């Protein structure tokens, strides 16, 4: 699968809010997920290594939500081994109230699998 094909698959599934399928099917076993340094102030781990740990991080995020009011994913931009999307979410969290989140996600694809993701917000 080319990077553009992976980007298109990611976009299709993200628009359906189906991140579990994205991670199950398309993440490499040794995937690395990187959050910005300031995420540590919210108690988040900056670097998460391994598919099961990244999936657990996603599950913890979903569990922290009370209501997902809306979410969107921009069409991807791809070049070389990388693609990026803009992710927007309107969420009410159990302990923080309602917030609007916007982030850029950059993903690296090698041998048809996502080997890294990094978020900027």
Q: If you had to describe this structure to a student in words, what would you say it looks like?
A:
With 121 residues, the chain is α+β, with helices and mostly antiparallel strands. The protein has one domain (3-120): Nuclear Transport Factor 2, Chain: A (Roll). It has helices at residues 3-15, 19-26, 51-64; strands spanning 27-34, 47-49, 65-73, 77-79, 82-93, 97-110, 113-120. α1 runs antiparallel to α2 (19-26) and α2 packs antiparallel against α3. The longest helix is centred in the middle third of the chain and has 14 residues, at 51-64. It is globular and about 40 Å long. The chain starts with a helix and ends with a strand.
**Unreliable stretches, pLDDT < 50, 5 or more residues?**
none
Radius of gyration: 14 Å
Question: Which secondary-structure class do the elements indicate?
Answer: alpha+beta
Question: What is the typical, i.e. mean, pLDDT?
Answer: 97
Domain SnoaL-like: 1-121
Protein name: Nuclear transport factor 2 family protein
Pfam family, one: SnoaL_5
